[in-house]
Amino acid sequence: MKKWVLALSLLLAVAGAALTGCSNVQEVSGKDGQVEIVLAGWGGNPTETKLLNQTIQDFEKLHPSIHVKHEVITDQYMDILKTRLIGGNGPDVFYLDALEAPGLINTGVLEPLNSYVKSDFDVQDFEKPLLKAFQKNGETYGFPKDYSTLGLFYNKKLFKEAGVEVPKTWGEFEEVSKVFKKKGIQAFGVTPELARIFYMAQANGGDVVKNNKANFATKEVVDALQPLIDQHLKDKTSVQPSDVGANSGTDMFAQQKVAMVIEGNWMIPFLQESFPKLDYGTAEVPTINGHKNTMAFTVAYVMNADSKKKKASWELIQYLTGKEGMETWTSKGYALPTRKSVADKLGFAEDEKRGPLVKGAAYATVWQDGPYLPIIMNNFNNQFLSAFLGQSDLETALKKAQKQANQEISIYE
Questions:
Q1: Which UniProt keywords apply (predicted)?
Q2: Distance, CA of 368 to CA of 394 (rounded, Å)
Protein backbone atom coordinates (compact mmCIF):
# COMPACT_ATOMS: atom_id res chain seq x y z
CA MET A 1 0.00 0.00 0.00
CA LYS A 2 1.31 3.43 -0.90
CA LYS A 3 0.29 7.05 -0.59
CA TRP A 4 -1.83 6.69 -3.73
CA VAL A 5 -4.58 5.35 -1.43
CA LEU A 6 -4.88 8.71 0.33
CA ALA A 7 -4.88 10.64 -2.92
CA LEU A 8 -7.37 8.32 -4.53
CA SER A 9 -9.71 8.43 -1.54
CA LEU A 10 -9.73 12.22 -1.68
CA LEU A 11 -10.36 12.16 -5.41
CA LEU A 12 -13.30 9.83 -4.95
CA ALA A 13 -14.77 11.95 -2.18
CA VAL A 14 -14.83 14.94 -4.55
CA ALA A 15 -16.09 13.00 -7.55
CA GLY A 16 -18.39 10.54 -5.75
CA ALA A 17 -21.56 11.74 -7.44
CA ALA A 18 -20.00 11.35 -10.86
CA LEU A 19 -18.87 7.82 -10.13
CA THR A 20 -22.23 6.67 -8.85
CA GLY A 21 -23.86 7.89 -12.04
CA CYS A 22 -21.50 6.04 -14.38
CA SER A 23 -23.75 3.01 -14.71
CA ASN A 24 -26.16 5.10 -16.76
CA VAL A 25 -23.55 6.43 -19.18
CA GLN A 26 -24.14 5.31 -22.77
CA GLU A 27 -21.78 2.63 -24.05
CA VAL A 28 -19.06 4.13 -26.26
CA SER A 29 -18.56 2.44 -29.61
CA GLY A 30 -15.27 1.80 -31.39
CA LYS A 31 -14.62 0.92 -35.02
CA ASP A 32 -17.35 -0.69 -37.12
CA GLY A 33 -19.90 0.09 -34.43
CA GLN A 34 -18.28 -2.30 -31.97
CA VAL A 35 -17.88 -1.49 -28.31
CA GLU A 36 -14.20 -1.80 -27.42
CA ILE A 37 -13.34 -2.70 -23.84
CA VAL A 38 -9.86 -2.86 -22.38
CA LEU A 39 -8.86 -5.93 -20.38
CA ALA A 40 -5.60 -5.52 -18.45
CA GLY A 41 -3.53 -8.13 -16.68
CA TRP A 42 0.00 -9.42 -16.24
CA GLY A 43 1.65 -11.84 -18.63
CA GLY A 44 1.78 -15.61 -18.43
CA ASN A 45 3.70 -18.41 -20.05
CA PRO A 46 3.08 -19.15 -23.76
CA THR A 47 0.46 -21.81 -23.03
CA GLU A 48 -1.49 -19.54 -20.68
CA THR A 49 -1.33 -16.70 -23.22
CA LYS A 50 -2.69 -19.00 -25.89
CA LEU A 51 -5.51 -20.18 -23.61
CA LEU A 52 -6.53 -16.63 -22.70
CA ASN A 53 -6.45 -15.53 -26.33
CA GLN A 54 -8.65 -18.49 -27.23
CA THR A 55 -11.11 -17.64 -24.46
CA ILE A 56 -11.31 -14.02 -25.61
CA GLN A 57 -11.84 -15.10 -29.22
CA ASP A 58 -14.65 -17.42 -28.15
CA PHE A 59 -16.24 -14.53 -26.25
CA GLU A 60 -16.03 -12.21 -29.25
CA LYS A 61 -17.67 -14.81 -31.49
CA LEU A 62 -20.59 -14.99 -29.07
CA HIS A 63 -20.64 -11.17 -28.71
CA PRO A 64 -19.83 -9.76 -32.17
CA SER A 65 -20.68 -6.23 -31.06
CA ILE A 66 -17.87 -6.26 -28.46
CA HIS A 67 -14.14 -6.11 -29.15
CA VAL A 68 -11.69 -6.88 -26.35
CA LYS A 69 -8.36 -5.05 -26.33
CA HIS A 70 -6.03 -7.11 -24.18
CA GLU A 71 -3.28 -5.12 -22.49
CA VAL A 72 -0.40 -6.89 -20.75
CA ILE A 73 1.39 -4.96 -18.00
CA THR A 74 4.70 -6.77 -17.66
CA ASP A 75 6.33 -4.93 -14.74
CA GLN A 76 5.10 -3.22 -11.57
CA TYR A 77 1.54 -4.21 -12.38
CA MET A 78 -0.23 -2.73 -9.37
CA ASP A 79 1.77 0.50 -9.33
CA ILE A 80 0.99 1.15 -13.00
CA LEU A 81 -2.64 0.13 -12.59
CA LYS A 82 -3.18 2.38 -9.58
CA THR A 83 -1.57 5.33 -11.37
CA ARG A 84 -3.87 4.83 -14.34
CA LEU A 85 -6.92 4.57 -12.11
CA ILE A 86 -6.00 7.83 -10.38
CA GLY A 87 -5.53 9.49 -13.77
CA GLY A 88 -8.93 8.39 -14.99
CA ASN A 89 -7.62 6.16 -17.78
CA GLY A 90 -7.79 2.76 -16.12
CA PRO A 91 -8.85 -0.37 -18.03
CA ASP A 92 -12.50 -1.42 -18.07
CA VAL A 93 -11.75 -4.89 -16.67
CA PHE A 94 -8.59 -6.04 -14.95
CA TYR A 95 -6.92 -8.72 -12.88
CA LEU A 96 -6.91 -8.18 -9.13
CA ASP A 97 -4.95 -10.36 -6.73
CA ALA A 98 -6.74 -11.18 -3.47
CA LEU A 99 -3.81 -9.68 -1.56
CA GLU A 100 -4.58 -6.23 -3.00
CA ALA A 101 -8.37 -6.52 -3.04
CA PRO A 102 -9.24 -5.07 0.41
CA GLY A 103 -7.23 -1.91 -0.20
CA LEU A 104 -8.70 -1.32 -3.64
CA ILE A 105 -12.24 -2.07 -2.49
CA ASN A 106 -11.89 0.57 0.22
CA THR A 107 -11.03 3.29 -2.30
CA GLY A 108 -14.26 2.84 -4.26
CA VAL A 109 -12.62 2.35 -7.65
CA LEU A 110 -14.21 -1.08 -8.14
CA GLU A 111 -17.72 -1.46 -9.51
CA PRO A 112 -20.04 -3.47 -7.21
CA LEU A 113 -21.28 -6.46 -9.19
CA ASN A 114 -24.29 -7.80 -7.28
CA SER A 115 -26.79 -5.90 -9.42
CA TYR A 116 -25.36 -7.42 -12.62
CA VAL A 117 -25.65 -11.05 -11.53
CA LYS A 118 -28.56 -13.13 -12.82
CA SER A 119 -29.63 -16.51 -11.51
CA ASP A 120 -28.08 -18.43 -14.41
CA PHE A 121 -24.59 -17.25 -13.39
CA ASP A 122 -24.66 -19.72 -10.45
CA VAL A 123 -22.64 -17.88 -7.81
CA GLN A 124 -22.94 -20.85 -5.45
CA ASP A 125 -20.71 -22.84 -7.80
CA PHE A 126 -17.62 -20.88 -6.72
CA GLU A 127 -15.41 -22.17 -3.93
CA LYS A 128 -16.62 -20.04 -0.99
CA PRO A 129 -13.26 -18.95 0.50
CA LEU A 130 -12.11 -17.74 -2.92
CA LEU A 131 -15.26 -15.75 -3.64
CA LYS A 132 -15.31 -14.27 -0.16
CA ALA A 133 -11.91 -12.72 -0.81
CA PHE A 134 -13.56 -10.23 -3.16
CA GLN A 135 -16.60 -9.42 -1.06
CA LYS A 136 -17.32 -6.77 1.55
CA ASN A 137 -20.50 -6.09 3.49
CA GLY A 138 -22.48 -8.48 1.30
CA GLU A 139 -21.32 -6.90 -1.97
CA THR A 140 -19.18 -8.72 -4.53
CA TYR A 141 -16.48 -6.71 -6.30
CA GLY A 142 -14.88 -9.45 -8.36
CA PHE A 143 -15.26 -13.07 -9.39
CA PRO A 144 -12.20 -15.29 -9.01
CA LYS A 145 -10.86 -16.62 -12.29
CA ASP A 146 -8.51 -19.27 -10.93
CA TYR A 147 -6.46 -20.26 -7.92
CA SER A 148 -3.81 -22.50 -6.47
CA THR A 149 -3.54 -23.96 -3.01
CA LEU A 150 -0.41 -25.35 -1.41
CA GLY A 151 0.12 -29.07 -1.18
CA LEU A 152 2.85 -31.46 -0.07
CA PHE A 153 5.01 -32.59 -2.99
CA TYR A 154 7.15 -35.63 -2.22
CA ASN A 155 9.79 -37.57 -4.13
CA LYS A 156 8.62 -41.18 -4.33
CA LYS A 157 12.09 -42.57 -5.02
CA LEU A 158 13.63 -40.84 -1.98
CA PHE A 159 10.70 -41.86 0.22
CA LYS A 160 11.17 -45.48 -0.82
CA GLU A 161 14.91 -45.33 -0.13
CA ALA A 162 14.26 -43.89 3.34
CA GLY A 163 11.50 -46.42 4.07
CA VAL A 164 9.02 -43.78 5.26
CA GLU A 165 5.34 -43.06 4.64
CA VAL A 166 3.83 -39.78 3.51
CA PRO A 167 3.21 -37.72 6.68
CA LYS A 168 -0.36 -36.72 7.48
CA THR A 169 0.32 -34.62 10.60
CA TRP A 170 3.02 -32.05 11.31
CA GLY A 171 4.41 -34.28 14.04
CA GLU A 172 4.81 -37.09 11.50
CA PHE A 173 6.34 -34.59 9.10
CA GLU A 174 9.05 -33.70 11.64
CA GLU A 175 9.80 -37.36 12.37
CA VAL A 176 10.01 -38.26 8.68
CA SER A 177 12.39 -35.32 8.19
CA LYS A 178 14.70 -36.70 10.89
CA VAL A 179 14.78 -40.09 9.16
CA PHE A 180 15.85 -38.43 5.93
CA LYS A 181 18.66 -36.65 7.77
CA LYS A 182 19.99 -39.96 9.11
CA LYS A 183 19.96 -41.28 5.54
CA GLY A 184 21.95 -38.26 4.36
CA ILE A 185 19.03 -36.83 2.40
CA GLN A 186 17.90 -33.21 2.60
CA ALA A 187 14.33 -33.50 3.85
CA PHE A 188 12.34 -30.30 3.51
CA GLY A 189 12.78 -27.39 1.14
CA VAL A 190 11.18 -24.35 2.76
CA THR A 191 10.52 -20.85 1.46
CA PRO A 192 10.68 -18.63 4.59
CA GLU A 193 8.09 -16.00 3.76
CA LEU A 194 4.70 -15.09 5.17
CA ALA A 195 2.73 -16.03 2.06
CA ARG A 196 3.80 -19.66 2.50
CA ILE A 197 3.47 -19.95 6.28
CA PHE A 198 0.57 -17.63 7.11
CA TYR A 199 -1.73 -20.57 7.88
CA MET A 200 0.89 -22.08 10.20
CA ALA A 201 1.30 -18.78 12.02
CA GLN A 202 -2.35 -18.85 12.95
CA ALA A 203 -2.53 -22.56 13.71
CA ASN A 204 -2.00 -21.99 17.42
CA GLY A 205 -5.02 -19.72 17.87
CA GLY A 206 -3.19 -16.48 17.15
CA ASP A 207 -3.81 -13.77 14.56
CA VAL A 208 -1.13 -12.47 12.23
CA VAL A 209 -3.31 -9.42 11.59
CA LYS A 210 -5.77 -7.96 14.09
CA ASN A 211 -7.88 -4.85 13.54
CA ASN A 212 -5.83 -4.18 10.39
CA LYS A 213 -2.62 -4.05 12.41
CA ALA A 214 0.35 -6.42 12.57
CA ASN A 215 -0.18 -8.85 15.43
CA PHE A 216 2.38 -11.56 14.71
CA ALA A 217 4.61 -10.96 17.74
CA THR A 218 2.10 -12.64 20.05
CA LYS A 219 3.06 -15.78 21.95
CA GLU A 220 0.53 -17.84 19.98
CA VAL A 221 2.07 -16.94 16.62
CA VAL A 222 5.67 -17.18 17.84
CA ASP A 223 5.01 -20.64 19.29
CA ALA A 224 3.36 -21.75 16.04
CA LEU A 225 6.35 -20.70 13.93
CA GLN A 226 9.17 -21.74 16.25
CA PRO A 227 9.18 -25.32 14.90
CA LEU A 228 10.15 -23.98 11.46
CA ILE A 229 13.13 -22.24 12.99
CA ASP A 230 14.08 -25.31 15.01
CA GLN A 231 13.90 -27.57 11.96
CA HIS A 232 16.38 -25.35 10.18
CA LEU A 233 18.78 -24.45 13.00
CA LYS A 234 18.56 -27.33 15.49
CA ASP A 235 17.36 -30.43 13.66
CA LYS A 236 19.08 -29.43 10.41
CA THR A 237 16.22 -31.06 8.50
CA SER A 238 15.22 -28.14 6.27
CA VAL A 239 16.92 -25.87 3.77
CA GLN A 240 15.92 -22.79 1.83
CA PRO A 241 16.67 -22.52 -1.91
CA SER A 242 19.92 -20.58 -1.52
CA ASP A 243 21.29 -23.26 0.83
CA VAL A 244 21.40 -25.77 -2.02
CA GLY A 245 22.12 -23.49 -4.97
CA ALA A 246 18.51 -23.30 -6.12
CA ASN A 247 16.29 -20.37 -7.05
CA SER A 248 12.98 -21.54 -5.60
CA GLY A 249 11.13 -24.36 -3.93
CA THR A 250 10.16 -25.65 -7.35
CA ASP A 251 13.81 -25.65 -8.41
CA MET A 252 14.93 -27.49 -5.25
CA PHE A 253 12.38 -30.23 -5.75
CA ALA A 254 12.82 -30.57 -9.50
CA GLN A 255 16.56 -31.07 -9.10
CA GLN A 256 15.92 -33.65 -6.34
CA LYS A 257 17.89 -31.63 -3.81
CA VAL A 258 15.13 -32.14 -1.24
CA ALA A 259 12.62 -34.92 -0.61
CA MET A 260 9.66 -32.64 0.16
CA VAL A 261 8.38 -29.15 -0.52
CA ILE A 262 5.09 -27.43 0.18
CA GLU A 263 4.27 -25.72 -3.10
CA GLY A 264 1.37 -24.89 -5.40
CA ASN A 265 -0.36 -26.21 -8.48
CA TRP A 266 2.08 -24.31 -10.71
CA MET A 267 4.62 -27.08 -10.04
CA ILE A 268 2.60 -29.77 -11.81
CA PRO A 269 2.68 -28.55 -15.42
CA PHE A 270 6.26 -27.35 -14.95
CA LEU A 271 7.45 -30.77 -13.78
CA GLN A 272 5.45 -32.50 -16.49
CA GLU A 273 7.10 -30.44 -19.22
CA SER A 274 10.63 -29.98 -17.86
CA PHE A 275 11.17 -33.02 -15.63
CA PRO A 276 8.85 -35.70 -17.05
CA LYS A 277 10.83 -38.59 -15.55
CA LEU A 278 10.64 -37.31 -11.96
CA ASP A 279 8.58 -39.77 -9.93
CA TYR A 280 6.66 -37.73 -7.38
CA GLY A 281 3.34 -37.54 -5.60
CA THR A 282 1.22 -34.91 -3.91
CA ALA A 283 -0.77 -34.91 -0.69
CA GLU A 284 -2.71 -32.45 1.40
CA VAL A 285 -0.58 -30.31 3.71
CA PRO A 286 0.00 -32.13 7.03
CA THR A 287 -2.50 -31.18 9.71
CA ILE A 288 -1.52 -28.86 12.54
CA ASN A 289 -3.15 -29.26 15.95
CA GLY A 290 -5.54 -31.73 14.35
CA HIS A 291 -6.83 -29.21 11.79
CA LYS A 292 -6.52 -29.18 8.02
CA ASN A 293 -5.29 -25.93 6.53
CA THR A 294 -3.32 -24.55 3.63
CA MET A 295 -2.91 -21.32 1.69
CA ALA A 296 -4.92 -20.32 -1.37
CA PHE A 297 -3.78 -17.75 -3.90
CA THR A 298 -6.48 -16.37 -6.16
CA VAL A 299 -7.07 -13.62 -8.71
CA ALA A 300 -10.36 -12.09 -9.82
CA TYR A 301 -11.69 -10.16 -12.77
CA VAL A 302 -12.98 -6.81 -11.56
CA MET A 303 -14.62 -3.82 -13.22
CA ASN A 304 -13.43 -0.24 -13.11
CA ALA A 305 -16.16 1.85 -11.44
CA ASP A 306 -15.27 4.69 -13.81
CA SER A 307 -15.74 2.60 -16.96
CA LYS A 308 -18.06 4.04 -19.60
CA LYS A 309 -18.72 0.56 -20.95
CA LYS A 310 -20.08 -1.31 -17.99
CA LYS A 311 -22.64 -3.43 -19.80
CA ALA A 312 -20.02 -4.83 -22.15
CA SER A 313 -17.51 -5.14 -19.32
CA TRP A 314 -19.92 -7.28 -17.32
CA GLU A 315 -20.58 -9.48 -20.35
CA LEU A 316 -16.84 -10.16 -20.51
CA ILE A 317 -16.48 -10.86 -16.79
CA GLN A 318 -19.53 -13.10 -16.89
CA TYR A 319 -18.06 -15.16 -19.73
CA LEU A 320 -14.50 -15.35 -18.41
CA THR A 321 -15.66 -16.52 -14.97
CA GLY A 322 -18.61 -18.51 -16.29
CA LYS A 323 -18.50 -22.25 -16.79
CA GLU A 324 -17.66 -22.21 -20.50
CA GLY A 325 -14.93 -19.58 -20.39
CA MET A 326 -13.37 -20.96 -17.22
CA GLU A 327 -13.24 -24.44 -18.69
CA THR A 328 -11.24 -23.20 -21.66
CA TRP A 329 -8.91 -21.08 -19.54
CA THR A 330 -8.11 -23.80 -16.99
CA SER A 331 -8.23 -26.79 -19.34
CA LYS A 332 -4.46 -27.40 -19.29
CA GLY A 333 -4.22 -27.28 -15.51
CA TYR A 334 -1.84 -24.33 -15.20
CA ALA A 335 -4.41 -22.80 -12.88
CA LEU A 336 -7.28 -24.50 -11.08
CA PRO A 337 -10.90 -23.52 -11.79
CA THR A 338 -12.67 -21.64 -8.99
CA ARG A 339 -15.97 -23.23 -10.03
CA LYS A 340 -16.49 -26.64 -8.47
CA SER A 341 -18.46 -27.89 -11.47
CA VAL A 342 -15.60 -27.05 -13.85
CA ALA A 343 -13.05 -28.79 -11.63
CA ASP A 344 -15.28 -31.87 -11.66
CA LYS A 345 -15.81 -31.75 -15.43
CA LEU A 346 -12.10 -31.43 -16.14
CA GLY A 347 -11.36 -34.27 -13.73
CA PHE A 348 -9.10 -32.21 -11.49
CA ALA A 349 -10.93 -33.17 -8.30
CA GLU A 350 -10.03 -36.84 -8.90
CA ASP A 351 -6.68 -36.24 -10.56
CA GLU A 352 -3.82 -38.08 -8.85
CA LYS A 353 -1.62 -34.97 -8.73
CA ARG A 354 -4.15 -32.12 -8.53
CA GLY A 355 -6.78 -33.83 -6.37
CA PRO A 356 -5.14 -33.00 -3.00
CA LEU A 357 -4.77 -29.35 -4.02
CA VAL A 358 -8.40 -29.13 -5.15
CA LYS A 359 -9.52 -30.57 -1.81
CA GLY A 360 -7.65 -27.80 -0.04
CA ALA A 361 -9.78 -25.08 -1.61
CA ALA A 362 -12.71 -25.74 0.72
CA TYR A 363 -10.71 -25.09 3.89
CA ALA A 364 -7.83 -22.92 2.70
CA THR A 365 -6.76 -19.61 4.19
CA VAL A 366 -6.78 -17.13 1.31
CA TRP A 367 -3.65 -15.01 1.08
CA GLN A 368 -5.35 -11.83 2.20
CA ASP A 369 -6.05 -10.07 5.47
CA GLY A 370 -7.13 -6.45 5.33
CA PRO A 371 -5.83 -3.44 3.40
CA TYR A 372 -2.37 -3.34 4.99
CA LEU A 373 -1.18 -6.91 4.51
CA PRO A 374 1.40 -5.84 1.88
CA ILE A 375 3.07 -3.64 4.53
CA ILE A 376 2.80 -6.35 7.17
CA MET A 377 4.21 -8.95 4.79
CA ASN A 378 7.29 -6.92 3.86
CA ASN A 379 8.24 -6.24 7.47
CA PHE A 380 7.56 -9.82 8.56
CA ASN A 381 9.64 -11.33 5.77
CA ASN A 382 12.68 -9.18 6.51
CA GLN A 383 12.81 -10.08 10.19
CA PHE A 384 11.63 -13.69 9.96
CA LEU A 385 14.51 -14.41 7.64
CA SER A 386 16.97 -13.07 10.20
CA ALA A 387 15.55 -15.52 12.76
CA PHE A 388 15.56 -18.34 10.20
CA LEU A 389 19.26 -17.71 9.60
CA GLY A 390 20.02 -17.61 13.33
CA GLN A 391 20.86 -13.91 13.40
CA SER A 392 18.13 -13.19 15.96
CA ASP A 393 15.74 -15.13 18.14
CA LEU A 394 12.25 -15.36 16.66
CA GLU A 395 10.41 -13.39 19.33
CA THR A 396 12.80 -10.44 19.14
CA ALA A 397 12.73 -10.43 15.35
CA LEU A 398 8.95 -10.46 15.15
CA LYS A 399 8.56 -7.74 17.78
CA LYS A 400 10.86 -5.53 15.75
CA ALA A 401 8.97 -6.27 12.55
CA GLN A 402 5.57 -5.71 14.16
CA LYS A 403 6.60 -2.32 15.57
CA GLN A 404 7.92 -1.14 12.20
CA ALA A 405 4.88 -2.40 10.30
CA ASN A 406 2.42 -0.65 12.60
CA GLN A 407 4.41 2.58 12.42
CA GLU A 408 4.07 2.48 8.64
CA ILE A 409 0.37 1.61 8.82
CA SER A 410 -0.31 4.58 11.13
CA ILE A 411 0.52 6.95 8.27
CA TYR A 412 -2.58 5.82 6.39
CA GLU A 413 -5.06 5.90 9.26
A1: Signal, Transport
A2: 23
pLDDT digits (tens, 9 = 90+) for 369-405: 999 999 999 999 999 999 999 999 999 999 999 999 9
CB 254 within 8 A of CB 270: yes
- β-pairing, 93-97 vs 135-136, is unpaired
Rounded to a whole number of angstroms, the CA Rg of the chain reads 22
* Gap between the Cα atoms of 324 and 281, Å rounded: 30
Q: How many domains does the chain have?
A: 2
Rounded-to-integer distance, Cα 163 and Cα 160, Å: 5
240 three-state secondary structure: coil
Asked whether residue 405 is assigned to any structural domain, the reply reads: yes
Q: Do 360 and 376 belong together in one domain?
A: no
Q: Which residues contact 8 (CB under 8 A, 6 or more apart)?
A: 82, 85, 86, 107, 109
Query: Largest Cα–Cα distance in the chain?
Result: 71
Please state the pTM of the whole predicted model.
0.89
Confirm whether 53 is domain-assigned. yes
Residues 122 and 28 in one domain: yes
Range of the domain at 96: 22-147+299-366
Angle at the Cα of 145 (from 30 to 287), degrees rounded to 5? 165
Give the whole-angstrom CA distance, residue 242 versus residue 210: 33
CATH code of 237's domain: 3.40.190.10
